[in-house]
Design brief:
The protein is an alpha+beta fold. It is about 30% helix and about 25% strand.
Length: about 575
């Protein structure tokens, strides 16, 4: 979030802030289905503060809501943590509800749930429920345990489908925390704990002062996170890492912070090395990942400086309605600096569906876009076959301090942006229109949109740290940056109208990039080698794809995970 507004409190103080915030909100009647998804967490906050009668009242309300995996997991989390306060009658009511809560699919052969996070929630309920009540359905317990034994072994070597989702991350780690806290089965409990830590290892290298700077499989707002957010994981990560200001939730989305409550009252604490890695941001580095369990099979890159990041993924070019494929995000100093993200994309749906009532049509990535990134430079190419023959993206009023256009009359050159923290140059292959839309509701907030029309198109983004051109006013700094881009870079859009659009760019670093749509990606004339792309890699960690060993290193501390034998060792080097 905001580097100059660090919240200096301890982890325990931040936990108490979350508990107090949630308790003050009361029972979440405004949440859809009147609290089904988070009502149990509201009760947990009251119990934690010692208001037992209010907590019990919330439990009784929540037990009568409609049942699904979200309901089931937070019923069980509240019960297992605070059942000492439940009356015998209330314990019987919980038992009756949970024994009749079907966690299996229609034919009873597998867990219910359409997504990974849903199945993890059902599985966690199943294994803990089976230990709590001897008359719990045997087939529920057997299928849940079998699923977890297989799934946890796979996640820790091959990643997961819903990678890096600001919304759903917490619904992956939440069930694993629940198992870690409450399951007696030592084998499965240990597997859950180490898998929980694998999940956090996969994100700490992508954290930049409150911003999760990475491509994402499932996000509902690629623009505003987390200063003004719709993301359920934002408060959790702020609470754990503490190097940024607390997120503000939009409108009635305040109830999204409820899902952090189990982490505020848990006995388990994430090892300190994770926070150390997440907050070590004094140098520039690259974080790489691959997540082949997603059908897009992404190879992910985040180039992260102390003040901004450029991120993208190479993938199978599938259309996914919550996919955020590439972007640039810079650190704001205050809330008023947000939104502070730039990206462009071709839209997921035909125009008839481009309306505010279904924002997924605006935010999703399509099967008509490919990206090549080298450090802080990026090329995206487009071969559009539907009727939405344009690309566009948000240009924030608050996040942009100054702008210069190379060719403001023909709108067919570079546009240079000063963000206050970094400098950015954007050039489209076809002429652009800016500001195209001065309200730009589709991206959230009152801002402008940069648009470029053409079925064959491309965009180049070049970035630089502000310190490289610092001195004088914003316009003076931006002029110096613009001069460097205009004199030192080479752009070749001559192949953009080919059957497979081709773009060449020689950037400020002197390195050459060339991408041919659906054909090749080259840096310095050589094809990028994705075959050996790591599962996780940056200066603090490494794990090869489909291998069992994950190494974490920070300063002199080393923490090594063995996901074959489910062991972890720590040492001081």
């Amino acid at each position: 979030m905001f580097k100059k507004e660090i919240l200096t409190g301890s982890l325990q103080e931040r936990k108490q802030i979350v508990i107090d915030d949630v308790a003050a909100l009361g029972y979440p009647y405004s949440e859809y289905d009147q609290g089904r998804k988070v009502g149990g967490y509201a009760a947990m906050a009251q119990f934690s503060k010692g208001d037992i009668s209010t907590g019990l009242a919330y439990v009784n309300i929540h037990l009568d809501r409609n049942k699904d995996m979200f309901w089931g997991i937070n019923v069980m989390e509240a019960y297992m943590k605070y059942k000492e306060y439940y009356t015998p009658a209330l314990k019987d009511k919980v038992k009756a509800k949970m024994l009749s809560f079907n966690i299996l699919n229609a034919d009873g052969t597998a867990l219910s749930g359409n997504t990974e996070n849903q199945r993890l929630m059902y599985a966690a309920v199943g294994v803990v429920g089976a230990e709590e009540w001897p008359d719990y359905p045997v087939n529920y317990a057997t299928i849940a345990r079998s699923y977890l034994l297989s799934e946890l072994s796979t996640i820790t070597k091959q990643g997961y489908f819903e990678y890096d989702s600001p919304t759903y991350f917490i619904h992956h780690v939440g069930p694993l925390l629940f198992i870690t806290e409450h399951l007696k089965d030592a084998t499965l409990r240990n597997m859950a704990k180490l898998t929980l830590e694998w999940y956090f290892a996969s994100i700490v290298g992508e954290w930049l002062h409150g911003y999760w700077v990475t491509s994402q499989a499932r996000t509902y707002n690629a623009q505003q996170e987390p200063g003004y957010t719709l993301d359920e994981s934002a408060v959790l990560l702020w609470m754990l890492f503490g190097d940024s200001r607390k997120p503000i939730y939009l409108g009635n989305e305040t109830n999204l912070k409820f899902t952090t409550i189990p982490f505020t009252v848990a006995n388990y604490e994430l090892p300190e090395i994770f926070k150390s890695i997440a907050t070590a941001r004094s140098t520039t580095y690259t974080h790489k990942e691959r997540m082949p369990r997603n059908s897009n099979k992404p190879y992910k890159t985040s180039y992260i400086t102390p003040d901004y990041a450029v991120f993208s993924q190479k993938d199978n070019r599938l259309a996914q309605n919550q996919l955020h494929r590439w972007g640039i995000k810079w650190v704001g100093d205050t809330y008023s600096d947000e939104p502070n993200t730039f990206f462009m994309k071709q839209h997921f749906s035909e125009p008839i569906n481009l309306n505010p009532s279904n924002s997924e049509y605006w935010i999703g990535g399509t099967n008509m876009e490919e990206v090549l990134q080298d450090d802080g430079a990026l090329i995206a190419v487009y071969n559009i076959t539907n009727s939405n023959t344009w690309i566009d993206g948000p240009v924030s009023y608050n996040g942009i301090k100054a702008t210069i256009e190379q060719d403001p009359f023909n709108r067919n050159g570079w546009v240079f942006f000063h963000t206050g923290k970094m400098l950015m140059a954007v050039r489209t292959a076809q002429p652009y229109d800016w500001p195209y839309d001065t309200e730009s509701w589709k991206y959230g907030g009152y801002q402008r949109a940069l648009r470029s029309d053409g079925a064959k198109n491309a965009v180049i983004v070049e970035t630089a740290p502000l310190m490289d051109y610092a001195g004088g006013s914003c316009i003076r700094e931006l002029d110096c940056f613009a001069e460097a881009v205009l004199t030192k870079t080479v752009v070749d859009f001559s192949g953009v109208n080919d059957t497979n659009p081709r773009v060449y760019y020689k950037g400020l670093t002197g390195k050459e990039m060339e991408i041919v749509y659906a054909t090749s990606r080259k840096i310095q004339g050589a094809e990028v080698n994705y075959a050996n792309w790591p599962l996780l890699d940056d200066p603090w960690m490494h794990q090869n794809y489909n291998e069992n060993k994950l190494d974490l290193v920070h300063d002199r501390e080393r923490r090594t995970y063995d996901f074959n034998n489910w062991k972890v060792t720590s040492s001081i080097m």
